[in-house]
Amino acid sequence: MVKIAPITESLPAFLAAHSFSQIAVVVDEHTKAHCYPLIQSLLPAHTLIEITSGESEKTLDSASLIWEKLTEAAFDRHGLVINLGGGVIGDMGGFCAATYKRGLYFIQIPTTLLSQVDASVGGKLGIDFHGLKNHIGVFRVPDAVLIDAVFLKTLPWRELRSGYAEVIKHCLIADASKWEEIRQKNWQEQDWTDLITHSVAIKENVTTQDPTEKGLRKILNFGHTLGHAIETYFLDDSDQRLLHGEALQSE
């Protein structure tokens, strides 16, 4: 279920419709400071799990930290994990939830444009391993994806532009008329809620038909062949590190 609505409405409605034994919220230092305050009062008692931000931290060590915190809090299989952040949080938090005790409930609350239009939808979860991007992972659709453009106000311009690269990708592979529409104005002037809704609809349509990437879903990798290689190459270079969308644009 993907819900595009104010988080003050969608999150309480989701929690009211379910009963969970415990709740954990996975954040990094940025989403803890800027995004967690927007949902904290909407939640019952919960465990906060903080990891370090960045693609370079999407590792087995970070996953072990999340599993350790869930174990320390004695989470059972009726617990809920809320992943509050961008693609790294969603990928890794979802992967940890899907594998802890063979699977907890989890939802994605994506806070970057990239994760709202792409990463949070479709059920791809995983971590990087020995320098290989998304090398260890699973397919599992989250119990809900709650999207609110309000979180985009917390982003620096580079993160917003990075996400816009995936918006362009969806238009180029599936909607030429939308591409002609958005190219008429600067990326900073776009209607983000409209573009998020448009991109989510395209990705949901493709992933519903091919959930485990056996055929059609491969079209969503447009721009990623060299893009992922370029992104991986710069992972260990803190001075020249590229964001995901910047790597795609360089291809």
State the gist of this model.
By secondary structure, this protein is an alpha/beta fold. It contains 11 helices and 8 strands.
CATH architecture grouping of the largest domain: 3-Layer(aba) Sandwich
Order of helices and strands: EHEHHEHEHEHEEEHHHHH
> Between the first and last Cα atoms, what is the distance in angstroms?
32 Å
Number of domains: 2
Beta-strand fraction estimate: 15-25%
User: Which outline best applies?
Assistant: globular
Structural class: alpha/beta
Alpha plus pi helix count: 11
The major sheet is characterized as:
6 strands, parallel
**What is the total tally of β strands?**
8
Sheet with most strands: strand arrangement: 1-8-5-4-2-3
- CATH class placement of the largest domain: Alpha Beta
Rounded average pLDDT: 89
CATH third-level topology of the largest domain: Rossmann fold
What is the alpha-carbon Rg in Å? Answer: 17 Å
Write the layout of secondary structure elements.
Layout: E1 2-4, H1 7-16, E2 23-28, H2 29-34, H3 36-39, E3 47-51, H4 60-72, E4 80-85, H5 87-99, E5 105-110, H6 113-119, E6 124-129, E7 132-139, E8 144-147, H7 157-174, H8 176-182, H9 192-209, H10 225-233, H11 244-250
